[in-house]
């Protein structure tokens, strides 16, 4: 890997997501040698991936080069590397570009899509965990619109014009809302020779309401927003298979579609080399103490989505969203500084800032403790917070410009097929 041997204790961080990035920022003026490994050379702002796949934003606006975070820091190194295994006995990380030893290791690898063992869905559906995958969905949707436009077979056209999304968590809700807006604001004008009312958007959810982690009030409001926008919602419905362009469910519902987006669950992106006492097998998350130390180790930490910290307030661990990852990254950074100075470590305490989801123009829902509200004010807060947390001044400016332009003109920036759609499984393997 060509990392110099220094006399400084070496911290290896795997993953430059919300957790890893916030940790690294805290380590800038310390006397550690810090090595960041990530399989991509950029940080992805995942909450806005759905806007890339529905052509609301260009991919560059929600990504940030990892080298820019560590620039001008002589004690910090970055390598594009996919970590394959951790040899805890030898204190070595094994990657596709070679091995590296550590004094301290931080695992911040986040999650990957969970298909719950269903091979037909994994082979044939599309899903959205990375920028290449979001762009792949964009290509698929616009290719299908083109195919629908050039066929006179009504059955085939229906397949191309039906968009089916499984999972009505925030991602599924935001995606279906964005496709509904695309239909009413953009596609009508782009395809004047096509009957846009033929486009159907179906949202399938196993629970009895959309946005199951939110309050009932916000769920009901989000459902009403979606229905008003023409999204067809199927609650208490479980997808069984997706093959030959047909979605079958465990009930009577069957839908023929060329666009099936799976957003029904995630599992930890864990790395091999741990016993089940440290890496909880069903959840694929590392069990950590209040200092984010992985059970059974003094020198290995896990933060963010991949970590499971059971506390009195959070007996099942913290939610797998950005805030716990950001806060754990910052707290661990402070603890590394405390270790340098011989001070006591701070136990992690989660400050829950609430949840929010946007459904469309002037339509969002917000839950902050007992306070729940929806509509324009919620949408405004959603926009402000997402701009605030986007990494990089340039990204904030570009995103703000794009949103303002879309708001005024009822237009979307990037409805382009830059590269042809590939099966998502291939994209995931290449990615
Ligand atoms: C579509 C979508 C929408 C979301 N919307 C919201 C939202 O609205 N609000 C919210 O709070 N949260 C949202 N989340 C969740 C939020 O993005 C995560 O909780 C957050 O990213 C977790 O941060 P993390 O640092 O743990 O992992 P991540 O941010 O996922 O970062 C993990 C990093 O590890 C790298 N990596 C993984 N495995 C390896 C390996 N083996 N070798 C090398 N590098 C590796 C990855 O490339 C990545 O850079 C959303 C997630 C998705 C997918």
From TrEMBL:
- Keyword Membrane assigned to the entry: answer is yes
The External alternative NADH-ubiquinone oxidoreductase-like C-terminal domain sits at 353-407
- Where is the FAD/NAD(P)-binding domain positioned along the sequence? 10-329
Question: Taxonomically, which superkingdom?
Answer: Bacteria
- Catalysed reaction, written as an equation: a quinone + NADH + H(+) = a quinol + NAD(+)
The record's annotation in Pfam families points to: NDH2_C, Pyr_redox_2
Ranges annotated as spanning the membrane: 371-391
Swiss-Prot/TrEMBL keywords: FAD, Flavoprotein, Membrane, NAD, Oxidoreductase, Transit peptide, Transmembrane, Transmembrane helix
List the EC numbers from the record. 1.6.5.9
Q: What class of enzyme is it?
A: oxidoreductase
* Family of the protein in this entry: Belongs to the NADH dehydrogenase family.
Please state what the protein is called.
NADH:ubiquinone reductase (non-electrogenic)
Q: Which organism is it from?
A: Leeuwenhoekiella parthenopeia
What's the source species' lineage?
Bacteria, Pseudomonadati, Bacteroidota, Flavobacteriia, Flavobacteriales
């Amino acid at each position: 890997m060509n990392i110099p041997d220094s006399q400084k204790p070496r911290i290896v961080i795997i993953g430059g997501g919300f957790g890893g990035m916030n940790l690294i920022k805290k380590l800038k003026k310390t006397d550690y040698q810090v090595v960041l490994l990530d399989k991509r050379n950029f940080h992805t702002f995942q909450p806005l991936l759905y806007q890339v796949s529905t052509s609301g934003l260009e991919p560059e606006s929600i990504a940030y080069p990892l080298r820019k975070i560590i620039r001008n820091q002589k004690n910090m190194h970055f390598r594009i590397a996919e970590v394959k295994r951790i040899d805890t006995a030898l204190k070595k990380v094994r990657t596709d570009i070679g091995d590296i030893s550590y004094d301290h290791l931080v695992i911040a690898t986040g999650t990957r899509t969970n298909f719950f063992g269903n091979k037909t869905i994994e082979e044939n559906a599309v899903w959205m965990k990375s920028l290449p995958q979001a762009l792949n969905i964009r290509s698929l949707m616009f290719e299908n619109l083109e195919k629908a436009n050039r066929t006179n077979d009504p059955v085939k056209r229906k397949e191309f014009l039906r968009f089916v999304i499984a999972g009505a968590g925030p991602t599924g809700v935001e995606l279906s809302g964005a496709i509904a807006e695309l239909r009413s604001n953009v596609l009508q004008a782009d395809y004047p020779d096509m009957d846009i009312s033929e486009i159907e958007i179906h949202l399938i959810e196993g629970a009895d309401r959309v946005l199951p982690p939110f309050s009932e009030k916000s769920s009901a409001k989000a459902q009403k927003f979606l229905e008003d926008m023409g999204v067809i919602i199927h609650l208490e419905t479980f997808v069984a298979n997706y093959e030959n362009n047909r979605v079958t469910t465990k009930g009577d519902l069957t839908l023929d579609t060329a666009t099936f987006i799976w957003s029904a669950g995630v599992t930890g992106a864990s790395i091999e080399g741990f016993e089940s006492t440290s890496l909880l097998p069903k959840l694929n998350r590392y069990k950590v103490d209040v200092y984010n130390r992985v059970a059974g180790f003094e020198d290995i930490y896990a933060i963010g989505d991949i970590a499971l910290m059971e506390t009195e307030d959070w007996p099942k661990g913290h939610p797998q969203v950005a805030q716990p990852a950001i806060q754990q990254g910052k707290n661990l950074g402070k603890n590394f500084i405390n270790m340098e100075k011989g001070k006591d470590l701070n136990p992690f305490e989660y400050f829950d800032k609430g949840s929010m989801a946007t459904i469309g123009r002037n339509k969002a829902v917000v839950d902050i403790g007992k306070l729940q509200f929806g509509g324009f004010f919620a949408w405004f807060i959603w926009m402000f917070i997402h701009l605030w947390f986007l990494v990089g001044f340039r990204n904030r400016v570009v995103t703000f410009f794009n949103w303002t332009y879309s708001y005024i003109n009822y237009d979307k920036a990037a409805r382009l097929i830059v590269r042809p759609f590939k099966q998502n499984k291939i994209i995931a393997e290449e990615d």
